């Protein structure tokens, strides 16, 4: 997955949730409102070692901090 695709996946994810990427970071395997939910959904999808990323509640605060 290219960095632009990863960013798009994060921007389109529900705010303040979690995104689970495959272990090789080639695709999104699950979303969850909690860490535990995202891990559970990723494991259900067959991904035993997902990379989890927290989605911020408000992207504006992060952009302004740069």
Distinctive features:
66 residues, alpha+beta, three-stranded antiparallel sheet, 3 helices, 41% helix, flat
Whole-number tally of structural domains? 1
Given helix and strand content, the structural type is alpha+beta
Q: Mind summarizing the main beta sheet? A: 3 strands, antiparallel
Number of helices: 3
What is the general shape?
flat
Proportion of residues in extended strands: 15-25%
SSE pattern: HEEHEH
Total beta strands: 3
Distance between the termini: 24 Å
Cα gyration radius (Å): 12 Å
> Strand order within the widest sheet?
2-1-3
Q: Give the % helix.
A: 40-55%
User: What is the average per-residue confidence, as pLDDT, rounded to a whole number?
Assistant: 90
| Low-confidence residue ranges | none
Commentary on this structure:
- By secondary structure, the chain is of the alpha+beta class.
- β1 and β2 form a beta hairpin.
- The protein is 41% helix and 20% strand.
- Strands 2-1-3 form a 3-stranded antiparallel sheet, with helices on both faces.
- The mean pLDDT is 90.
- It has one domain.
Question: What is this entry, summarized?
Answer:
With 66 residues, the protein is of the alpha+beta class.
């Amino acid at each position: 997955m290219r960095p632009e695709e990863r960013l798009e996946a994060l921007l389109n994810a529900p705010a303040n949730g979690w995104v689970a990427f495959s272990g090789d970071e080639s695709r999104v395997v699950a979303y969850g409102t909690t860490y535990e939910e995202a891990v559970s959904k990723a494991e259900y999808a067959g991904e035993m070692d997902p990379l989890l990323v927290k989605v911020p509640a408000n992207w504006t605060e992060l952009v302004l901090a740069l």
